[in-house]
Amino acid sequence: MKHSLGCFVLLLTVVIVGGCGGSGTSQPAPSPTTPSVPQVGHVVLLLEENHSYSTVIGNPAMPFFNSLATKGGLATNYFANSHPSIGNYFMLTTGQMITQDDSFTATVDADNIVREILASGKTWKCYAESLPSVGYTGGDVFPYLEHHNPFSYFSDVRNSSVQLNNLVPFTQLTTDLANNQLPNFSFIVPNAEHSAHDCPDGGSSCTDTDRLTAADVWLQTNIQPLLSSTTFQQDGVLVIVYDESNDSDAQNGGGHVAMVIVSSKAKSAFQSTTLYQHQSTSRLVFEALGLSPRPGAAANAADMLEFFP
Question: What is the C-alpha end-to-end distance of the chain, expressed in Å?
């Protein structure tokens, strides 16, 4: 079907027309593409522990974290997948919960972010505070907790002397930033005294405010230098998310938690009301790094495109 307009003809295909009597070349309309988050050079994922959204957002004990939530992107309708912790860590890195046993010690052969990073030729490191040594894949050595470090379980890491070198103590981050060697993907694991999991002195007699204050001071001391670095400011994305809510909140599996995105590539002072869970954060990380395929539930999870211009 076509409609004449003077000497020109408007078609339902793309037409280049030279004018009255001129020749035109018809070309098919371009195929639509599926939108995704912008690809960046550096993605940093950091997990905090065991607190509900309402406990941390707006809490004066966490001024630094709340400043990031205010200035960056905040997911206000975000839920963890399970209790206890370990299933959430695996969902973020494999797209499935693998286990709900925090005492789990087996090797995980499922597809995971390390496998896809290596296939793409990109780089990764897990910066784990209080990790006993480079390449350590053993059990808990308090305040380091193994079940907060999913990378220590992956066959792609355990079975490779090369990849084991990417399990490093958190102190290595300062050196890597100074030498412009931040990997494409960084997974940051504060120890149990600094993730709001336990009392900051390692004991059991402290208030929740003590836990949150210690976690916030640690974030400001250790993460602000990352945010201020030239490398991150050019093309970095930081995601801070709580692994699970308190035990009394099991809504959607793991309860209502806070998730914040900070990046020069993302919207500022943005709040989302969309329902998200950890598989969407996994999808975000994979898309931002240009990784494919996305394993497990990350393949079809709700995208987080709304956080980006």
Answer: 37
Cα 260 from Cα 244, distance rounded (Å): 14
The residues spanned by each domain of the chain are: 1-32, 40-307
Helix (H, G, I), strand (E, B) or coil at 217: helix
Question: Quick check: 243 and 84 in contact, CB under 8 A?
Answer: no
User: In this structure, are strands 42-48 and 167-169 parallel, antiparallel, or unpaired?
Assistant: unpaired
211-223: average pLDDT: 98
Q: Report residue 269 as tokens.
A: 């002072």
* Architecture, CATH, for domain 40-307: 3-Layer(aba) Sandwich (3.40)
For 233, list phi and psi in degrees, rounded to 5.
Answer: -65, -30
**Is residue 278 within 8 Å of residue 256, measured between CB atoms?**
no
Token pair recorded at residue 85: 């912790």
Please give the pLDDT value at position 32: 52
Work out the average pLDDT over 279-286: 98
7-11, 165-169, 274-278: which has the minimum mean pLDDT?
7-11
Helices 278-289 & 85-94, crossing angle to 10 degrees?
Answer: 30
Q: Tell me: cis bond preceding 60? Omega within 30 of 0 counts.
A: no
Closest of 190, 288, 177, 154 to residue 227, by C-alpha:
177
Please tell me the distance from the alpha carbon of residue 135 to that of residue 202, in angstroms, as a whole number.
Answer: 24
7-63 per-position pLDDT tens digit: 333 333 333 334 434 444 445 554 456 677 999 999 999 999 999 999 999 999 999
Task: Compute the average pLDDT of residues 264-281.
Answer: 98
